[in-house]
Design a protein that fits this description.
Length: 382
């Protein structure tokens, strides 16, 4: 298939591009280096060096013989995206091109405004580029499990049937995001739903949990093909922060009581899920929502696991609870459905001790580059 990957320089975009190109798809990526720019501005650079997209594509070509087309440009600019659509005529688009850090979106007005404008405009432009230039194209959009929040009832896969005064109707499952970033994802979903029901677009919205891991079949070919790995409080996920703290010999910082439960998945499973969604497209006029994670655990359970595995490897890993910079429930019910992707054929990769040990091994050679000041919370939900 001809696949356009929006946000192809990112943590998920780059490994997705390599994986799809290696399978013989015709892959083109677009990115404006927003992530690299914001990381520099907030002193949150990635732990390992990442060559620019043109260099990565050239390195990948020599390692695998597979081609990835590269375009440096801003998809929040409609003319840029329109031009790419006219030239490339994608059959599927994987849309990763958003500002994805909750803490970044909570720094202040400028950051909130950038996040809202960038994310909503990227999605609106994609919708219009499809409508005007490739109406059959399947949009595979990355949403987040954070759209649902942590309600005190089971979380369904995107939709819920409501019975009210004896009548029934199916609605988008209620959303209650915990940051401005997550709220932009809720707005994206609503925007897509409007255009799906009004213009008959075909869309898959993947409600993804936090992704962990650096190893994929393609990134293992050459260390310079690794995806970006951020470990700071702004762009790093809790898994990355804990792994780096374990290696650096500083305590793993659990926010508050540590009972926050989320659905996680391995990077290799993101690649599977996106390809499964792409090769089993939604119908025209369908907004298909799939909850994309493979297992749930609490922050405390994650900390205990990293501590146990780290100590077995000879590291001295301590765990410390700190004041929670976020406004979130620290103990709550959490039971989200996630059968749609399993039904499509997803083979889960669970976070075993061996996987945790493998990630620690990958970080150890970069120990001297770790700046522990970047890990403690610099942003608070005021
Ligand atoms: N990584 C996760 O754990 C996770 C979990 C749930 C959802 N998601 C979603 O998946 C997507 C990708 O996440 P990621 O972790 O790879 O983030 P990332 O920041 O590493 O990648 C996003 C990429 O999009 C690019 N981009 C942003 N705005 C752009 C624009 N206007 N024009 C061109 N390029 C632009 C950035 O430069 C970056 O390279 C995001 O939409 C995010 O919300 C990620």
């Amino acid at each position: 298939m001809r696949v356009l990957i929006m946000g192809g320089d990112g943590y998920l975009g780059w490994p997705t591009a390599m994986a799809l190109a290696a399978k013989g798809h015709d892959v083109h990526v677009v990115d404006n280096y927003l992530r690299r720019t914001l990381a520099q501005q907030t002193q949150s650079e990635a732990l390992m060096p990442n060559p620019n997209l043109h260099d990565r594509a050239a390195l990948f070509r020599s390692a695998s013989d597979a081609e990835i087309g590269v375009h440096i440009g801003d998809v929040a600019n409609y003319r840029t995206l329109e031009h790419i659509f006219q030239e490339f005529q994608p059959e599927a688009v994987v849309h990763y091109a958003e500002q994805p850090a909750a803490p970044y979106s909570m720094i202040g007005f400028e950051q909130a405004s950038l996040t809202l404008n960038n994310n909503l405009n990227a999605t609106l432009n994609l919708i219009w580029a499809v409508l005007e230039h490739a109406p059959d194209c399947h949009i595979v959009k990355l949403g987040t499990m954070g759209e649902y929040g942590t309600p005190n009832i089971d979380i369904e896969e995107g939709w819920i049937e409501v019975e009210h005064k004896g009548r029934k109707e199916t609605f988008l499952y209620p959303r209650a995001a915990g940051s401005l970033y997550h709220t932009t994802k809720v707005l994206d979903t609503d925007l897509l739903w409007f255009y799906v029901r009004t213009y008959g677009l075909r869309v898959t919205d993947l409600m993804q949990g936090p992704v962990y891991g650096l190893s994929t079949d393609e990134s293992d070919l050459d260390g310079r093909l690794l995806p970006n790995f951020h470990y700071d409080d702004i762009f790093g996920t809790v898994v990355n922060r804990f792994l780096v703290q374990a290696v650096a010999g500083v305590p793993l910082t659990v926010y508050g009581k540590g009972g926050q439960v989320r659905g996680y998945l391995n990077l290799r499973d993101t690649l599977q899920c996106v390809e499964l969604a792409m090769t089993h497209p939604a119908e025209k006029g369908q907004l298909r929502i799939l909850n994309q994670f493979t297992e749930t655990f609490s922050v405390n359970e994650l900390a205990e696991r990293v501590q146990r595995v780290g100590n077995e490897m000879g590291l001295d890993v301590q765990v410390q609870s700190i004041d929670n910079p976020r406004k979130e429930k620290e103990e709550h019910y959490y039971n989200p459905v996630h059968s749609g992707l399993l039904d499509l054929g997803l083979q889960p990769t669970y976070m075993t001790d061996a996987i945790v040990a493998g990630m620690l091994e990958q970080i150890l050679p970069y120990k001297e580059r770790i700046d522990t000041k970047k890990i403690l919370p610099r942003v608070r939900w005021k």
